[in-house]
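User: Hey, my collaborator sent me this sequence without any context and asked if I could get a structure. I don't really work with proteins. Can you help?
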Amino acid sequence: DLVASLFMQEIPEIANGIVTIKSIAREPGSRTKVAVTTNDDAIDPIGSCIGQRGTRIQSVIRELGGEKVDVVLWSENVSEYVAAALSPAEVTKVEVNDDEHLASVAVNSDQLSLAIGKGGQNVRLAAKLTNWKITIKEEGGSVIADSESGEYASENNPLDEHGERAERASEADAKEQTAEVESQVEEEKDSDTAAPTETAADEKGVAEEEAKDAEPNEESKETKDGVAP
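Assistant: No problem. I've predicted the 3D structure and written it out in structure-token form, which is a compact way to encode the shape of the chain:
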């Protein structure tokens, strides 16, 4: 594995076995999560991977072409491991269902976007890293994201019982209304082009009357020329 090889190359503690890579989840070119652990209590496994001022992990990132890399602490405790895997989000609670192999995670509202990630990437990678299905919800609320189905929801766009996102009728309505407005605008444009308005016709009539009144009649012309009636 490329990522594992780079960690071995850049991090001595991994090369000599003091720090162990337990799992890797990756979406090439975008983001990678690496779970590490150690049996030496004197060693900080994450700090060893990051290096002073981030020098070690930056070397790995450069080799991966700028790909984001998250290093998290592996744990035998599923709740702790899932919470760590969702880094950089701060998790408030994890409920584990062993029968369904499901971890239900609650976070505060300001942590939702971090927990889910762009396009659901963070929760998806966390699920791959831990090998657990993960759902994300706001503390005290309903499910917002489901790592298994890849569907993400909001209050107006909830997940159904199968974890699939319900279509928002409001979106369809908005599109239909937009189409109707555009159609009306086109009709009005066609109408304006085809015939003048009543106001324009009235103005034209007034102008013609004024022009007619301005023309001299035969009687006034003869008087002006000095011919008596």
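In plain terms: Confidence is low (pLDDT under 50) at residues 154-175, 219-229. You can pass these tokens on to your collaborator as they are.
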